[in-house]
Amino acid sequence: MRNVDFAPLYRSTVGFDRLFNLLDTRGQPEQAQTYPPYNIERTGDNTYRITMAVAGFDEQELSIEAHAHVLTVKGEKNEEESAGESEYLYRGIAKRAFERRFQLADHVEVQTASLKNGLLHIDLLRNIPEAMKPRRIAIAAEGNDTAKTIEAQVAPQQIN
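Above: the chain's sequence. Below: its structure in token form.
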């Protein structure tokens, strides 16, 4: 596996630290976390939705936190005390806790979260400030600070 050294880029760029740290951490192999499965979809120009399959969890057992460009979804299953009532011969439904983290881009905010039919839906909105949106710049003529006006010259009338 190749390692990329971002040190030369740190010396010649300003303000890209977060990008290089993200690339550095994503480039390293980590334990593949597959639970719970999830989808990320674009639902509009500036809207996104994360859908996670969290069957068996209810609202009280899930927590969602957005902090410093990281969205963290945690699930902690409450252990049900059923001692003496039944004995599991096979346990295929997972009751394990999980924590899933998503890196959010700048200006991405969590709008809503809902749980329906075992699917947790998290709606996100990219809210770009007005100061960062493209704007049209007027072009002024060189040497003339005022707007151009067209003036007509009227020829003197001849008297007959």
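The mean pLDDT is 78.
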